[in-house]
Amino acid sequence: MTQNILSQSNVTVRGNGKRTILFAPGFGCDQNMWRYVYPAFEADYRVILFDYIGTGQSDIQAYDPNKYNNLSAYAEDLIKICSSLDLKETIFVGHSVGSTIGILASIQRPDLFKHIILIGPSPCYLNDPPEYAGGFEREDLLGLIDMMERNYIGWAKFFAPTVMSNPDRPELTLELEESFCSTDPLIAKQFALATFFADNRKDMEKVTVPSLILQCANDVIAPIEVGEYVHNKLADSTLKLMQATGHCPHVSHPEETIQLMKDYLQNRLPDQKQQGSRRL
């Protein structure tokens, strides 16, 4: 079982530190999207990277559509990865839906996590007025799903610039578009349904692990109101508003992302302060 989940999820282990930091991708992305960020932590951490089953270089044969129709299944895989590597008090870093997956895992097994860092998190993408503004109407999301079914390549070309939101850097949009297109359309559609129609707002108050929320400017996928909502619901959270624009600051603005992560960890982890002061 240990080797199965590690090979199926294409788990990669780097670095030599005593503490462990684990990076979880967002929707339509794989571990390669962290390549601008994780090297900055290899000197002080054991770095864990992985792909969701059905995406990236994971074992496509392990994908079960009857299982992966909700985010809890992905959280279960995350727990299995941590257990297989005998991880405890891990620093978890999740992007977008990866944040929610990490939150669900931390609720089930809080002992596995020391801190959770959430980049562009959203517990619910649907508007629910007047109490909640998720950013999308149901008709908008249904339209995206319909576009995925009818013209997946066209959907990728439409959705990638919306997510990246850095029009002056078209190479980043192209990379995200190619990442979307590398996933089987049927798997991508099911992951999209599980992601964009989930409502995990009630789970926010169950989280006991301290968290950092990184909120980008002009993020149409997870607007600032969503970041503030998550901050207000999580018991021990820190909200940092970024200069970075769009929904993928670890790709578009990795230096700022790294700096904010290190600042938070150096303040929260006493044994990291001295190392951090030398490095930055």
Automatic annotation (TrEMBL):
Organism for this UniProt entry: Alkalihalobacterium chitinilyticum
Gene Ontology terms for molecular function: hydrolase activity
Domain AB hydrolase-1: 20-254
Keyword Chaperone: no
Family: Belongs to the AB hydrolase superfamily.
Keywords: Hydrolase
Name of this chain's protein: Alpha/beta hydrolase
This protein's record includes keyword Hydrolase: yes
Top-level division of the source organism's lineage: Bacteria
